[in-house]
Amino acid sequence: xxxxxxxxxxxxxxxxxxxxxxxxxxxxxxxxxxxxxxxxxxxxxxxxxxxxxxxxxxxxxxxxxxxxxxxxxxxxxxxxxxxxxxxxxxxxxxxxxxxxxxxxxxxxxxxxxxxxxxxxxxxxxxxxxxxxxxxxxxxxxxxxxxxxxxxxxxxxxxxxxxxxxxxxxxxxxxx
Length: 175
Prior knowledge:
The protein has 175 residues and is of the alpha/beta class.
């Protein structure tokens, strides 16, 4: 078990609070290799911008989970070399499709995970998301859930039907 703080990463809680208060957005980029990571860190450092490094399930398999941990730690150090005294970098699992995947990412030092149970029946999505939240919050890792389904494929989550998120479900989902 590696805590994201040991890698120099941050979670999204304070980052998003400052962005809302300041009226700005936080860029999030999916990356698959070292060259992409270098470009993201160089640009965010030059702009003194916080950044979310997103990794899909496929990218995690491609890059290797152990290497990703060290790449994230290296990204923080690289940002410091580029002049950022206190880099704000999040390592985020994008569209995780199981509790086991989200748990593994938390255990490897990710500071944020997304559990995408949107293809499940609503009540199963709630149960899965709650399970991930209960595990991740023990380690101060932020969690993003997914409601609604767009037809097509996104990060290995596929659906033939489309149904948009209902505002009343959001209130129920988050309570």
